[in-house]
Design a protein that fits this description.
Layout (H helix, E strand, L loop, with lengths): L9 H9 L3 H10 L9 E6 L2 E7 L4 E6 L6 H15 L4 E6 H6 L1 H23 L19
Parallel strand pairs: 3-4
Antiparallel strand pairs: 1-2, 2-3
């Protein structure tokens, strides 16, 4: 089963890329071309869902939400979606449209901070700890060392 960018969502992803909201355009202008030191993709598919912005290296998703996401039925769908993404070890950070428009510098600063935290965590998990030398039985002989 294909999990990322499934073909059945290709036209929808393309439509969303070509018809971004004003807040998505503003945020994308700060995320594209590795400006934060991390590659982000826009309108990236994971299973049946399409994420606004996604950094595959860090498994980090950024969603920009409009007022409709304040409705209870949409909040529920967002929770189901986040649970699905969490099963893929994807962290989701959500911003309201007005936050991006009115406070883009703060939003970018927070995204950069989260990226650094995720990178540091990933680096620590992937680092190899040297093994201790094997234990020997008996006394250590004085020798040539």
């Amino acid at each position: 089963m294909q999990r990322f960018n499934i073909k059945s969502n290709k036209n929808r992803r393309k439509f969303l890329r070509n018809n971004m909201t004003n807040s998505e355009v503003v945020l994308w202008s700060k995320l594209k071309h590795n400006q934060l030191g991390f590659k982000f993709r826009r309108q990236f598919g994971v299973g049946p869902y399409i994420i606004d912005f996604y950094c595959p290296q860090l498994k980090f998703a950024v969603e920009v939400d409009g007022e409709v996401h304040a409705l209870n039925r949409v909040k529920y769908k967002d929770k189901v979606r986040e649970k699905f993404l969490k099963d893929f070890n994807i962290l989701v950070k959500r911003y309201w449209n007005y936050e991006v428009i009115e406070n883009i510098d703060s939003v970018i600063e927070e995204i950069y901070y989260l990226c650094q935290q995720l990178k540091n965590f990933k680096d620590k998990r992937n680092s190899v700890t040297p093994q201790s030398p094997p234990k020997t039985r008996g006394r250590i002989k004085r020798g040539l060392i």
